[in-house]
Amino acid sequence: MKTVAVDLLRRRLLAASALWIGGSVLIPVARALGGVRAPTPANALGPFYPRHPPAEVDADLAVVEGQRGRAAGTPLSVSGRVLDRHGRAIAGARIEVWQANAYGRYHHPGDGNASGPLDPAFQGYALLHSGGNGSFRFASVMPGPYTGRTPHIHYLIDAAGTRLVTQMFFAGEPRNAEDFLYAALPDAGRVAATAIDVAAPAAGGRAVQWDIVLATG
């Protein structure tokens, strides 16, 4: 129990310190007024942003060249758009995505998490660019929870002179209420940060849709 408590404290301190990026504190979610969309709420970078990108950064996090089969866990399909406050598509946005594997373990030397092993077939990170209509899509597996955290996926978006660091959450997860970063968001922020479930792929698994609204435009 002592090890778990120390690990939780370390993660919370690291996450809190990571709220400061480029010398500026991350801004809270804004309310939508007059038809203007509320920006996606900023959230912690977290302690497990990759120190060095992996050799593969494509849009399928569940496959690694040279490894047999796909990563363990429930298959996940994520799609969405990058938009400005007026709902206009932002093309060419640079989108970094990283997450824990199905066991709640990050592919990061700083994660000594005892919740589960590394998965050699899990890429854990992707570098995407939004299309002409602002769209993006990637395949992965459902991230596992770990001490103090509900399943979530990290994003870092650079577009139109704006940088957003945020996290995407999943509806209906029993640990959402216990997650200190999710709970810290206002009601509107939790809605904006939570992906919408859509029809699951024919092959099974889970599919979600999540739009990213930047505070620009």
From TrEMBL:
Residues 78-106 form the Intradiol ring-cleavage dioxygenases domain. Gene3D superfamilies: Aromatic compound dioxygenase (2.60.130.10). It comes from the Bacteria. One of its GO terms (molecular function) is oxidoreductase activity, acting on single donors with incorporation of molecular oxygen, incorporation of two atoms of oxygen. Pfam families: Dioxygenase_C. InterPro entries: Intradiol_dOase_C, Intradiol_dOase_core, Intradiol_RC_Dioxygenase. SUPFAM superfamilies: Aromatic compound dioxygenase. Keywords: Dioxygenase, Oxidoreductase. Belongs to the intradiol ring-cleavage dioxygenase family. This is Protocatechuate 3,4-dioxygenase beta subunit. The lineage of its organism: Bacteria, Pseudomonadati, Pseudomonadota, Gammaproteobacteria, Candidatus Competibacteraceae.
